[in-house]
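Internal ticket #5521
Category: modeling
Description: The requester needs a full-assembly model to guide mutagenesis choices. All entity lines are attached below as received. Residue total reported by intake: 717.
Assigned to: D.W.
Attached entities:
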Amino acid sequence: MPYRVERNPDLCKKNFGRPGCCWYLCDDRDEKICGKCFSCFNNCPHGVYEIIQGDPYPLNQEKCVGCRICLEMCPNRAIEVNAIPEDARQGWGFPDIVEIVRQSQTASYKLRSTGALRRIPDFDDLVVIPAQVSRPPIDKYREPCGTDVVLGDRYAENPLKLDTPIMIGAMSFGALSKEAKMALAIGSSIAGTVTNTGEGGMLPEERGLADKLIAQYASGRFGVSADYLKKGDAIEIKIGQGAKSGMGGHLLGEKVTAEVSKIRNIPEGSDALSPARHMDIVGPEDLSMKISQLREITDWKVPIMVKFASGKVASDVKIAAKGGADIIVVDGMQGGTGAGPEVIMEHSGIPSLASIVEADLALKEIGLRDQVSLVAAGGVRSGADLAKAIALGADAVYIATAALISIGCRVCQMCYTGECRKGIATQDLSLRHRLDYKEMGKNVANYINTMTDEACMLVQQAGNTHITKLEKENLRALTLEASALTGVPMAGVGK
Amino acid sequence: MSIKEIDAENLTPRELNSQIKEFSPQCDKIIIKNPNAKHYLAAGVVDDIEIEFDGSVGYFAGTMCDKAKIKINGNSGWFVGDNITGGEIIVEGSAGDGAGQGIYGGNVVVKKSVGSRTGEIMKNGTIIIGGNSGFMTGIFMMGGRIIILGDVGEDVAESIIRGVIYVKGEIKSLGHNAKLEELTFQDTLELDEVLTQYDFDIDDYSNFKKIVPKSTRPFYGH
C-alpha cells in the first residue's frame, strides 16, 4: 500500500531542547552540525527524503514502505506517515507500477528482506474455542498452566529442555550485528529457551550468553568445524528456509566485513551465496547419511534437527523422520530473511498453517509422531499464533522477525544493504552503537514471556492445563481458505 | 611411541569412533584393522594423533578432524576429509566424489584418481590428487588450493570466488567465473615444496596450468 509522508516545517524548525538529528545516540556531538537536523534524511532506509535549499523534503514518496523510522527518530515529532487507499487501476496497483518502472530502468529483479508480505491465510483466520459447560475452563489467575517442553529425545542423550515452546530461529552473524546476536542470546537465556546461530558460524559472545544454542549446519558450511558442532546444544541441518525456498543463504558483500570474513572464512567484501542444496545431500539416503555423520561427530549427545522450506511437506518430513531426525522444522512462506529475491518470497512455498497440519499428519502416517518433535516457523507473532500452531500439531515454534521487532526492527525490508538504522542488521560500528544489547536482551525475554502467558490464557480458557495440550478440535476457522488448508471446521458448523 | 590396535571387523561405526576418541588422547598412533569400507570413520577426532586404516573406508572418512594425521591404506568412498580444519589425510588408493569437500585447513592427499566435485565449497587448506579429477572440481571454492597431477573434467572452478587450482594434465573446460593465469616462479616453489612433502616427483612445472577467479562478486558485484 502506498504511503503519504508529510513533514511539518514549523515543528521541524523548533528546538525542543534536544540537539539535532544525532540526538539518537550521537557519538560526535558537534554544535554546528547539530543545529541543522537531518534525522529523517539520514535515517530513512529508502531514500524518500532529499535536501532542498537546506531543508529535508519527502520528495520520493513512492519509495516509502511505511516503516516510520523517520517518524520515530524525528526529535520534534514533525513527521506523519499515513497509508493511503490504493489507487488500483484494473488490478494495476501503485506498487506494481513502481516496480515495473524500476525493473525497466535497472534491468534487475528486486531484492529485499522479510518474507511474503501479501495477504495469505494465516493464524488470524483461526480462533480458539472456549470451554464452558461441556468442558470447564481453567482459572488463569488461580490455577497453573504448564509451559515446559522437551524436544528431540528420540536418539539424543541430551534433548532440548525448554521452559517455553518459543524458540528463536536462525539468523546469522553477518546478517545481524554482534550486538543483535548478543541481545537474542541474553533474551533466550532469561526466558529459558534456545537461540540459533544461523549459518554464519558461532560468535564466542553468543555462545557465552546463550544458555542453549542451536548450531546451524547449512549448505555453505560457514564456520563449521567439529568444535563448532560440539559447542551446540542441538544441530540444525538447514535444507531450506520459507522466505527463499529452493535458494541458499544470501549475504551480500556490503555486510562481509573483516570480522564476518574471518568467522566465515570467505573474502572480505565478497557475496556469501550458499548453494541452493547441500552438495552432499541430493536424495533421501544422503540426508539419512548426513544425520548419521553429524551424530558420529557429536557422539550422539545432541538432537539433530532438519529444517525445510514448506513445499512437498509430507514427503520431506517422512524422509527426514525415517532418516533419523530428532526434530523437524517446517518453515512456511511467511518466514523471513535478511536478503532474497522478492519473486521467490511472494510466489513460492505454502502458508505456515498448511505446512504444520501436513507435517503432523505425515508423522502420524509413518507412526513416528510420538518420537519426532515438530517445530513450526514462519509468521509467528503472538501468543495466539503460538497456541494455534500447537493446536494444529506443532510441539514448538520459532520466532525470528518478531524477535527482531522486539529489539527495535521496524520491518523496513532493507537488511541486505547493511545500513540498518537500528544497529540490528548491520556491521557498521556507528550504527551498531545504537543497539543497547543488554536492554534489548530484556525486551526479547519480556516479549517471549508475554507470548507464553498469552498462549496460556487461550489454553486455559479452552479447558487445558498445559500448553502442549491444545488440539485441532479446540480451533475453528473464520475463513473458507483457512478451513480448507487446515481441515479445521468453519466456525458455527461444529458438532 | 605408544600404538593402539583396534580390530573393526565386528564394530559399528559408532562403537569404533567411540574407541578411537577414547584412546586418541592416550596414545600416539591407532591402527585400525578391517575397516571394511564402513562410513564416518574417525569422525570429529580433534586430538593430535596418527590414525592408520589398514584397508578401504566408506563415506566421510576423517570428517571434521582437526589435528589428526590419517592414513588410509586402500580406497575411500565419497567425501573423504570432509570439512577438516587441520591435520592431514592421505589415501593411498583412489577416492570417490567430493574429496576434501569444505575443508578449512590441513591437507587432503589422494595418490590415485578421484570422482567429481573435488574440493567443493572449500575455504582453505590444500588438496592434492595424484591422478585425474572429475567434473566441477573446485565448485563454489572460497579459498585454498587444489593440485591435480592428472587431467580434470568439465567446468573446473565453477563459481569460484577465491583460491587457486593447478592442473598438470588436460582441462576439459573452465566453469563460470574461472580464468587461466600465468604460473609464477613463486607458484612453482610452493608446488614443489608441498608435492615433495608427499613424495610426488615432478621434474618440470612448465606445463602446469593455474586457474583463479575472475571476480569475488560474480553475481551481485558492480
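Resolution: model delivered.
Comment from assignee: The interface with chain A takes residues 13-14, 17-18, 21, 39-40, 43-46, 59-60, 63-66, 78-79, 82-83, 85, 98, 101-102, 104, 117, 120-121, 123-124, 139-140, 142-143, 161-162, 216-217, 219-221 of chain B (CB under 8 Å).
Ticket closed.
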